[in-house]
Structure formats: structure tokens, C-alpha cells
Amino acid sequence: MSTDSIVWPRSESLSRPFVDQLHEWITTVDHKRLGILYIVYALIFLIIGGVEATVMRIQLIRPHNDFVSPQVFNRMFTMHGTTMIFFVAMPIVFGFANYLLPLMIGARDMAFPRLNAFSFWLSAFGGLLLYFSLLGANGLYGAGNAPDVGWFAYAPLTSLAFSPGHSTDFWTLSLLVSGFGSIGTAINIVATILCMRCPGMTLGKMPLLAWLNLVMAGLVLLAVSPLTAAQIMLMIDRYLGGHFFDTQAGGSAVIWMHFFWIFGHPEVYVLVIPAFAFISEIVPVFSRKAMFGYPIMVAATVAIGFLAMSVWAHHMFTVGMSSNANTFFVLSTMAISVPTGIKIFNWLATMWGGKIVLKTPMMFAIGFLFQFLIAGLTGIMLSSAPFDWHLGNSYFVVAHFHYVIVGGILFALFGAFYYWFPKMSGKMCNETLGKWHFWLFFIGFHLTFDFMHIPGLLGMPRRIYTYEPGRGWEIWNLIVTIGVVFQTLGILVFIYNLLSSYFRGETAGSDPWDAWTLEWSTSSPPPAYNFGTIPTVRSRRPLWDLKHPDDPDWKYE
Amino acid sequence: MSATSMTVPEMTVPEPNWVLPPRGRVAMFCLIAAEAAIFTIFVVAYLFYLGKSPMGPQPKDVLEAPIFYSICLLSSSLTIHMAVIALRKGRIGNFGAWWGATIVLGAAFLYGTASEWHRLIYREGLTISTNLFGTTYYSLVGLHGSHVIVGLIGLSTVMAFTFLGKVSQEHAERVDVLSLYWHFVDAVWVVVFTVVYIIGR
Fold this sequence. Notes:
The structure holds 2 protein chains of 2 kinds.
Chain A: H1 9-13, H2 18-26, H3 31-59, H4 70-104, H5 113-136, H6 167-195, H7 208-240, H8 253-287, H9 294-308, H10 323-351, H11 360-383, H12 385-391, H13 395-425, H14 431-457, H15 474-504, H16 542-547
Helix pairs in contact in A: 3-4, 3-5, 3-15, 4-5, 4-6, 4-8, 4-13, 5-6, 6-7, 7-8, 7-9, 8-9, 8-10, 8-11, 8-13, 9-10, 10-11, 11-13, 11-14, 13-14, 14-15
Chain B: H1 2-5, H2 23-48, H3 59-62, H4 67-88, H5 92-122, H6 132-163, H7 172-199
Helix pairs in contact in B: 2-6, 2-7, 4-5, 4-7, 5-6, 6-7
């Protein structure tokens, strides 16, 4: 083999000038590099979104605080929500899918590498467009600057009369652009999973992560498109004088809510199904057992995918729908808790009787299990329309969905970071720092979001920039804000751990966790072509078969 | 490099008949699913707002069903199908003729839409900002028209390559994937036509 004909980017790039390396990263179509780009991009926005949340919590630490003006507070919650959903959670989920899917199904890249790069850069520029509003969205006094219409931007607040200037347009355009990126990535994920599997990997032998990402990508196709359509309508209203959401001319504000939540609720499942996927990979490996009930897990995920499309109006109980519509959405929302509950039982049954290894990824996974359960329980409470009439738009709802997104999705993501960081970087994450991260973030999370339920029950509405003393909300808001301190410390430990482990960590080797899926059969980090020879699999745990030729899985599946 | 060292002979048992679906078709069906969701939202908006315009031209006063141009568009599905069949058999001349006919029919449909819009704007005084009907009508028909334009750009690209002699039998699969998009654009017109010109009047 002549060495000059082989591109070997990693070892060469160490000695290359910075500009060349930068050029390589920007022009890359390699799924691993794009995955890392997605993840790094999302982590930067995670810090920005976290700062916005912190500003809000400082403002609410005591009654009549004047840390920020009401206008700035509005911009903060709008930017926090939009950033965290569209420019943190989505890209991080896509990043892991990009990095892991080809490795786990034994392929050398995604189905469409250039579409992959195109989609990433669309998402990236979408995020920059949102933040460019800080510079570019000049308008009338108090209307310029960052978007301030809330992350679901209800009509008629977004009409020209109530949102002059261009801040809302930046919001619309950035979601439109990043939405096209999401659809491109979803197409790529589906095509990769269906068309790029290595020989022997039938649908029933795919890792659960691949199955769950397949459902996630299908949901993106069906759920992000309505948002795109709604944003086009909003642009027509704002720029061409249309009347879609113009109640003065017969338009309807409620239909925007429907269109937004037809996107908005499946979006929750777009984010949480990959979290399920991480847990479904981490729990078996650290319980030293095969996944309990693989076919049921797949069936439950597909059921969630279908049901997710029929629950959106539970966000709208307080709008005043007909009692038939209320009944339908109450029942469908309660129904979706059934397959979700099945999953919880499957993970518990996987752990049951296993030799549980309490490494950092597993600690985050166990944290996920309990917190996601509680999040689901408050979800069932809110799914009951009469209960929701009391608590809709209160801090109880805010606490509920943060329990899902932080206590569920973010904990699963942290687990995924610690689990796959050795594969991505070739270095082990520091266990001690990882446990500090877990406990700090765990304490901070529970201080903030457990106690956030209570002011909601006491009647504190969301999105208020301050409140009167004497309503019994002060102590709870103080505790909630103190929790932010712990969460911030946890995140700082996490970032420091990633950086220090990357530069000074122990070498990981190809399979540090003694795991069973194909990504651990190649070196860490994997070469550009992933696999020297394309593997052939005969069971769901190909590396188990390899390590235990006397007792392979395929005899029992 | 442990990539190959872990792969013992047992793992590389050759799998007979390992065939996976073609990625181009899968991706195009995904795109069609996403586009269908976009059109669904616009169709729902159109139906929801039917008869809700407080004033101005109403659909029954100004709309005339573009039957001739609809026949043009729908028959272009047939011609593109014939074109793909011809290319599969390697008959490049026939392919070019059917493909060209598809482009002409698609362009005729666009001309139909353009002349209808010209009449509505200049004779009937209906613009996108006149009333709700104008808003929903121009956005739904315009969304479809923009898809026809995108399709025509794709078709014309293939036509240009055909003239340059760069299209051969081996490209039949790719050309077929593009034809799927065109069939989708035609199928959407059946829905839009039904909603706008039959139910809407």
C-alpha cells in the first residue's frame, strides 16, 4: 500500500496549519465530523440559552426586582425557548444520530453525505440568523432587538400592528431555514437506516438506537413541515398583507395555535425518542444484560410515533375548544402514556437482576428513568382538561415540561456524552469529574424544577417579569433560583471535563465499556472510512457473538 | 488499526441476496411525505377559511376551472412515464421526445396559471391582500405553482444533459426518482383543483 494515496486526516491534521484544518472542517462531508460540528454548535447555544435562563431567574429571585426591564424579560424567554428547542436540542440529537448511525449499522457514511453537510450549514446559519436580530432588527422603540413574541409566537401578537420592526421576521426566517435543514437531515437518516445497513442486519436486528432514530426522523418529516407551512403563512401576512391570522379580516388566531402545536407536540417526541434511544443503549451495557423486550420496545416507539401526531391540542385546553375536541385530546394524551410506560418497565426489567455498573453514563441513565417518570406523571395530570384549566399557562406547566426536557432529555444526553465521548475523542472522560457533574446538576435540577411546581399550584402565571410580595411565591422563587447556581456549576464541571479529558484523558481503546454494538468494533476515534471491511452481523449484539463464540446470541433470537 | 483486527472470519459470513431498497427512491418518498404535510396545512387553511371573507370577490364570482390546463398537467404524468420507460429500454431519442413533451405540458400549465392570475388581478381586482379568499387562494395555488417551477427546473436540467448526449440507459433509475417528484406535483394538483375549483365554488 502506498501511503501517499491514502487520506489519513487525523494524524496529518495535527501538524497542519490552523487554516487548513479549519478548511477541512468547513468543507467536510464526513458524517463523524458533521456530527461533532452539530454537537459543538449545540453546546455553544446551550451556554447562550443557559445564560438567558439565568437572567430570567435572577430577575424573579425576589418580588419587584428590577434586574432587567419587562421588554428584555420578554426577549429572554423568547430567545431561551427558541434557542433551546431549535438550536440546542435538535442539533444535538441530529449530531448524535449523524455520528452514531453509520457506525452502528456498519456503513461507511450517511446515504447522502453532501445533503448532510448542506443540512448542517442550513441549521447553523438559521441559528446565526436568530441572533443576528440583536444587531439587525432595528425598528420602533421597544420593538427592535431580539424577538419577544414567545417561542410559540401566538397570533395576533406577531402581526405588523403589534410586532413592528423586524425582530419577528428574524424569528420566522431562522426557523424556516433551520426547518429545511431538519427536513434534509431527517430524509438522510431514514435513507441511511433503510438503505445502508451491513449484510445480515435486518430491521429486527438493528440496534434500538437505529429503530428509535428512524421513528424520530419520520416524525420530523411530518411535524416540522407544518411549522414550515405556518411560517410561510406568517411571512405572507407580514410582508404581502395576507390575512391568515388577521382577525380583523376574518382570519383566525386559533388556527395558528393548531398549526404551531401540530408541530410543537410531535417535536417533544422528536427530542425524547433519541433520549430513549441513548437510554436503550446505555442501560443494557451497564446492567450487563441484553435489552429486555426488544420487539415491544420497537412497537412502543412506533406507537408513540403515531400517537404523537394526534395529541397536539392538549396545549390548547384553555383556548375553549368544543367538549368533543377536549375529550378526544384528553384520551389521546392519556393513551400515549401507555407505550411510554411500557418503555419504563422494559428498562427497569433490563436492570432487574443485572450486574449494574454505576459509571457516570449509567448514573445519568438512572436519573433519567426516575425524572422522566415524574415528568410523565405531571403530564398525565395536565392531560386532564379540567385540571389543565386551572394550571394552564402557570409555572406548573413550566415545571412539567422542563422536567421532561431537562430531567429527561438533557440527562439522557449527558449520559450519551459520557458513553460515546471515548469513541468520538479516543479519550476516557474523567469519572470523578463526571460524578461531580452528575451530583451538582442533579441537586440543582431538583432544587429548581421540583420547587417550581409549587408557585404554579399557587397561581403564578408563566412569562411574568415580576410579581407582588405576599402571595406565598417568594420563598419558592428563591429556592428555584438557588438551584440555578448548582446547575451552572454542574455545566461548568461538564465543559471542563470534556476539554481536559480531550487533551489529557486516558486513552480509551476501541471498546472501553465492553459493549456489544458495531461502533465499538472500530478504533476510537474511527478512521474516515469507519470499517476496514464491512462487517456482517447475525444478531442484535454482533460484538457479543464475537466475544463469546461458544454462546452467541443468534442461536436464541 | 483495530478496525480489521476485530473482524474475525465468523463475522464475515457472506450473506446471500442482501438487497436493500434504493436510497434515491426512499429519499424521494421521504421528501414527498414532508411536502405532503406542507400542502395539507395549506389545504386545511383554505377549507377552514372558505366563505369567511367578510367582503370582496368571492370564489363563485371570479373563479373559472382551468380544465384545459389541468388536462395538460395531468397528461404530463403519462408522458414522463413513457419517457422513463423509453430510457429503461435505452431509446434515447424517444426519451428526449417524451421528456420534452412533459416540459411543454408543464410550461403550458404554468402559462394557464399565469393568465388566470393576470385576469384575477387586473380584471377582478383580487390580490393576495384583498381578502381572506385572495390570501388563501394565491398561497395554495402559488405553493403548487412554485413546485411546478422547481420540477420544471429539474426536468430542464435533464433535458439539457440529454441534448449534450450525457444521458444514457444507466441513468434510468435517477431519472425515475425525478419523475416521482413530478407525479407528486401532478397528484397534488388533483387535490388543489378539487378543493379550489369544485368544493370551493
